[in-house]
Specification:
491 residues; alpha+beta; Hypothetical protein af1432; Phosphorylase Kinase, domain 1; Aminoglycoside 3'-phosphotransferase, Chain: A, domain 2; 3 domains; five-stranded antiparallel beta sheet; guanosine-3',5'-bis(diphosphate) 3'-diphosphatase activity
């Protein structure tokens, strides 16, 4: 007896007597349907076996350890990817979003194609049922689910589609999934996704990396083309949104490179740009650190251009200070609520100006083409006071290297000493002054926002080391001293 046959018998026994919530059909029909969908995508016996067993841990007395003994480690891993965390002390509706977010993180981070196939097959089977019920009963169907808000259900099914698209967009299962999502929530996905589409596949093997940032790396593809390769956790929608933002920024007067196409680079998305004979400013500084003041002047002038653009509320750019407030809530508020309130008060008092801020402004994101700067990475474009942008620059060029200069050196490509000199020079050029007292005051304000950001960054770790705790203590102390001294963050 092979694994699939044994799994059918095992699952039938464990699901015996159980029925599906809708329709009252024997529960075993669902995992068998999932296995059938998987068989249209793969012949991999372990993936199909996992499809048959995927609800054992959540809905029966079966355990992962038993599955591993009977069917092997990979099958157990695949089943685990579909098993949501349990919150026995909470009603299902209360923990619904938390459970979904945690399990989606597993889907997002997995490198095994079987995980994506299993998720798609299971959710396709589920949404087939939802789609049929929706056609008969309309919006009434939500009231019987643990999550009765159709917008939250839409978020969940849309996110799954986005996360599996690059790997599985050519399968019939994916196209059927998109059709059902669009039937229940019209317009959620572009209808082109339901038809055959093959992304242009390119390789950056042997290509020179000319830049990198939080969202991915940039490669020189040939003499004319540059490719930005996004990290694994970026979806097609993320890339689309960034390209759309670039077009909006260009119309508003920001000199920006605009992508002319989305490509597949292995298991990741890429965006192609025509940037003839261009390099990042970081690359120029690496080649000639002695010219750092020249490049600082170019960056300062570009910053003033961005910060001089005023937009209307109809342009719908988010307030930049919302991002900073989220840093407070994610870090300092967990350590000292009173200090968090003081920081939030200072941030809230910043005027809600409608001037633009780039949000990820550094020399890896600026290309020089024939001496003219061109920006990329426009997804954090927002509105607000320039001190927020100045604090981002201080974070990139000074704060990140305070404990380990190699962090900045690996990121920017040039020495930490050059990095600090670059920031000081940019600050003087931006404000057009050599007044040391005035510039130090700006640095203090930027330093407070950076302390807030660093505490938030450290708190994102699942477990905090002794070193992490020491850093938190230091940045908390720094934030407290600055918050007590500063009356405003404006300059």
């Amino acid at each position: 007896m092979n694994k699939i046959e044994e799994a059918i018998i095992y699952a039938t026994i464990l699901h015996q007597g159980k029925v599906r919530k809708f329709g009252g059909r024997p529960y075993i029909l669902h995992p068998l349907e999932v296995a059938q969908i998987l068989s249209t995508m793969t012949e991999d016996e372990e993936i199909i076996t996992a499809g048959i067993l995927h609800d054992i841990v959540e809905d029966t007395d079966g355990t992962l350890s038993e599955i591993e003994k009977r069917f092997g480690g990979r099958v157990a891993m695949l089943v685990s990817s579909e098993s949501e965390p349990d919150y026995p002390d909470e009603p299902p509706y209360s923990s619904w979003k938390r459970r979904k977010e945690q399990s989606l993180q597993t889907l997002k981070s997995s490198q095994d194609i079987g995980v994506k196939m299993l998720w798609l097959a299971d959710k396709l089977a589920n949404i087939r049922s939802l789609s049929g019920l929706y056609s008969e009963h309309g919006e009434k169907i939500w009231q019987d689910l643990h999550q009765s808000d159709p917008e939250m259900q839409k978020w969940y099914y849309r996110t799954i589609g986005e996360l599996v698209e690059l790997s599985l967009n050519k399968t019939g299962a994916f196209k059927e999934y998109i059709k059902h999502v669009n039937f229940i929530w019209p317009g959620t996905f572009d209808r082109d996704k339901t038809r055959y589409k093959k992304y242009r596949e390119v390789s950056v093997d042997g290509c020179r990396q000319i830049g990198k940032g939080a969202k991915g790396e940039v490669y020189r593809y040939d003499d004319e083309l540059v490719i930005k390769v996004y990290n694994d956790n970026n979806t097609y929608r993320d890339v689309e949104n960034e390209i759309a933002q670039s077009r909006r920024a260009f119309v508003l007067g920001i000199p920006t490179a605009i992508s002319f196409g989305i490509v597949a680079v292995g298991s990741r998305y890429g965006a192609m740009y025509e940037l003839l004979d261009s390099e990042t400013i970081s690359s120029f500084i690496v080649k000639d650190p002695g010219q750092v003041d020249i490049y600082a002047k170019i960056m300062a002038e570009l910053a003033r251009t961005i910060h001089g653009i005023t937009v209307s509320e109809d342009d719908c750019f988010p307030p930049a200070k919302d991002r900073i407030l989220s840093y407070v809530r994610g870090g300092i508020a967990k350590e000292n609520e009173a200090l968090a309130d003081r920081c939030m008060e200072l941030i809230d008092r910043l005027p809600d100006t409608k001037t633009l801020i780039h949000g990820d402004f550094h020399t890896n994101n600026v290309f020089l083409q024939n001496g003219e700067p061109l920006l990329i990475d426009m997804d954090r474009l927002s509105t607000g006071h320039p001190i927020i942008e100045i604090s981002d620059l201080y974070y990139f060029y000074v704060v990140l290297g305070e404990d380990d200069p190699a962090v900045v050196e690996n990121f920017m490509g040039f020495s930490y000493a050059t990095s600090k000199r670059f920031f000081d020079s940019l600050l003087k050029e931006y404000f057009g002054t050599e007044n040391a007292e005035m510039l130090e005051n700006v640095k203090e304000k930027a330093s407070l926002l950076c302390s807030v950001r660093m505490v938030n960054k450290i708190h994102k770790k699942q477990e905090l080391s002794e070193k992490d705790r020491e850093l938190i203590h230091r940045y908390m102390k720094q934030a407290e001293e600055l918050a007590d001294r500063l009356e405003t963050l404006e300059f």
